Amino acid sequence: MKYDEIHIENLEFYARHGVFPEETKLGQKFIISLVMYTNTQGAGKRDDLELSVDYGAVSHFITEYMQKNTFKLIEAAAENLARELLLRYPLLEGVDLELKKPWAPVGLPLEYVSVKISRCWHKAYLGLGSNMGDKKGYLDYAVKRLNEENGCKVEKVSDYLVTEPYGGVEQDDFLNACLILKTLLSPEELLEKLHEIEKEAHRERIIRWGPRTLDLDILLYDDLVMENDKLIIPHVEMHMRDFVLKPLSEIAPNVRHPIYKKTISQLLKELG
After folding, report:
1. Which EC number applies (predicted)?
2. Is 101 a catalytic site residue?
């Protein structure tokens, strides 16, 4: 989806960010330019500020936040500010932010140094499973923990589905589900968070496809295709698993697999 843009150009403020003691003690001038991605159609049609992002309020928040907090690096200042903006203003979907430092102490003539970043909300589709102990309790716990995590919002959860075990290991039936997660976490950060929640649920990785208290998988992340030693997106076997496609088709039937270019409903139908 292509979003509308609201721009704030070259907002100046005085703050105390820097590596050297004199920078954090005396302070210096900084300049921020910001592009906010949102949907302005409702505000435009109704002429109602409540339906848009108030650039005046945002400008004052930026100034107050950057003066209240101190960072050694402008990279850290930009990163933390972008996150705070996305968390504070619910109509914001993403930001492009450039933080300029005109008086950077490099000992050479220059106009400014700057760091420019783009940050946005992402949509992840997760698979959940349990076949030990209080299965429903473990799935409920995972949903609750994810929704309480800073920078994460659970948008939809499928019904819980009883399924036969996968992988040929004799064990109890599973309780499976899928959910849609709006998140600021990167795929790697999200994977780390899922492992943390599994550990809290006393998950033990002893037998592949064996019994487990809680199993959390990243199925899709936006339309990303990636592979490294720790993570593969989309999940390599999701298109072959009815215990994934059934609950996922309940909450996201028209989402397309970024490799096979078919909707979840189509993949489920073909699986038969």
Report:
1. 4.1.2.25, 2.7.6.3
2. yes
